Amino acid sequence: MHDIKFIRDTPDAFDAAMLRRHLDVTAADILSLDGERRAVQTETQELQAKRNDLSKQIGEIKKTGGNADELMQQVASMKERLATLENMDKLYAQRMQEMLCSIPNIPANDVPEGKDEADNKELRRSGQPALINNPRQHFELGEALGLMDFEGAAKLSGARFTILKGALARLERALGDFMLDTHTDEFGYTEISPPLLVKDEVMFGTAQLPKFADDQFTAARTKSRDELLHEALSFASAEELASLQRGERSLADVVAAAISRAPVKEDLWLIPTAEVPLTNMVANTILEREKLPLRFTARTPCFRAEAGAAGRDTRGMLRQHQFYKVEMVSITAPEESDKEHQRMTECAEHVLKKLELPFRTIVLCTGDMGFAARKTYDIEVWMPGQNTFREISSCSNCGDFQARRMNARTRASGEKNTEFVHTLNGSGVAVGRCLIAIMENYQQPDGSIVIPAVLRKYMGGMERIG
Fold first, then answer.
1. Which of 91, 135, 174, 358 has the most other CB atoms within 10 Å of its CB?
2. Distance of alpha carbon 106 from its chain centroid, rounded?
3. What per-residue confidence (pLDDT) applies to 259?
């Protein structure tokens, strides 16, 4: 989320940043709404001061036995106006929140200009693609081995799901174990096993909500009677609680009335990536600066509706509603985030180097970056069956964009002032896509698949799938 003070102080810089994003959002639109709200707040402050002054005058008049009816009528009228102003302020605050939350992050100064993926810039390559005669795609290999079942998955769940069997299922598990071991043992990440279902405010914190709700899956849960009873008094009105204290109503009556207003169902969101729970672990906290950076990693299933991907990658398991990914998240002091961004990208690259998979690293242009990112490096692995590079990891520095939404701050020892932390996230890497890359890069003429040497201890010594 954006800092309104930054927009007030540097509207031209904000407009220039949005132009780099190829958006027509302007500071003038935001500041117009901001001006209306500030006018309401100014009137509120002036009216409160005048009311307080009149209240003192009324007190003095009553002390001397005078008639203060006229002044009391003025105060009553002011009370009504203040109530109106309070509602207006709440409305403006909500509209401002909605506006600021719908605007993407400001690109870093060194992000290349561009409209789409064609304008991304390649930074480096690693490894040479093997020469494979008539390479097959992963789904051709998997189905021929009888270890990849798309029709069976469609019967269970519909399109964009896959059943892996036998050695391929084990290879998927082995990849996740290998990646977690690499990040924890070699790079000092702390392994986390997070919840897969999260609340609205958690999805808001990492910017999946409200803008990208259509890309998410939800799960509704009906609350038990015990939970409703436990929560009931939080839905009781002040008047009901007061009547309970006075003995005018029974506890049973107050609870019954409160339960009638309590939500019976609770909607939770299936995580689209472990970035969501890992980053939100520091929400609404003030972190000791001396303990930064924090580095977390997790292997989780991820759930995505792929609402904007109709007709893309419909064959195989390249783009799924459910897939596994090993995620990396870093929480840093502001001045350390650029350095951490390079480190995180190198951690993801190291995984592919150990697997001896050819890849290239690119920096995304302003028009292709994600909503919350200020700078993103994508790692693309070579896919012989498609004769192209495909994304397997995306490492983003979000600056303080997510931290503002989560209210995650840091403070140095002995200091009073706080500042927002910087958050970073990256795939370390996508397990399913890595499985695909291994199948296609290590395929043999007879349709078998050689297992990379670094994975064989995770596969019980198995050297080949065939």
1. 174
2. 16
3. 65
pLDDT digit string, tens, across residues 384-416: 999 999 999 999 999 999 999 999 999 999 999
User: Is pLDDT of 258 > 80?
Assistant: no
Helix (H) or strand (E) segment spanning residue 450: strand 449-450
Res. 375 pLDDT band, cuts 50 70 90: very high
Residue from 127, 139, 130 nearest 447 by CA: 139
Is 263 a residue whose pLDDT tops 80?
A: no
Dihedral Cα 438, 441, 444, 448, nearest 10 deg: 20
Q: What letter would DSSP give residue 183?
A: I
Name every residue whose Cβ is closer than 8 Å to that of residue 36 and which is 6 or more positions away in sequence: 92
Tell me if residue 258 falls in helix, strand or coil.
Answer: helix
Q: What is the dihedral of CA 9, 89, 402, 22, to 10 degrees?
A: -60
Which residue spans within 80-209 are E strands per DSSP?
Answer: 121-126, 148-149, 163-164, 190-191, 197-198
Q: Using pLDDT thresholds of 50, 70 and 90, give the confidence band for residue 200.
A: very high
Q: Are 382 and 358 in contact (CB under 8 A)?
A: yes
Check if the beta carbon of residue 395 is closer than 8 Å to that of residue 426. Answer: yes
**Interval 406-464: pLDDT, tens:** 999 999 999 999 999 999 999 999 999 999 999 999 999 999 999 999 999 999 999 99
Cis peptide upstream of residue 452 (ω within 30 degrees of 0): no
What are the φ/ψ torsions at residue 172 (nearest 5 degrees)? -60, -45
Residue 149 in this model has a pLDDT that exceeds 90:
yes
Sign of CA dihedral 208, 212, 216, 221: positive
Find out whether 450 and 183 touch, Cβ atoms under 8 Å.
no
Check: CB of residue 430 under 8 Å from CB of residue 325.
Answer: yes
The answer to whether 465 and 451 are in contact (CB under 8 A) is yes
How many CA atoms lie within 13 Å of 21's alpha carbon, on the beta-carbon side? 23
How many H helices and E strands in the chain?
Answer: 15, 18
Cα separation of the two ends of the chain: 51
Strand segments, DSSP code E, in 286-441 are: 286-288, 294-303, 322-332, 359-363, 375-383, 388-397, 409-411, 419-420, 422-430
- pLDDT of residue 261 exceeding 80: no
Q: How many other CB atoms are found less than 10 A from the CB of residue 436?
A: 25
Q: How far is 298 from 191, CA to CA, in rounded Å?
A: 6
**Residue 456 bridge partners (DSSP):** none
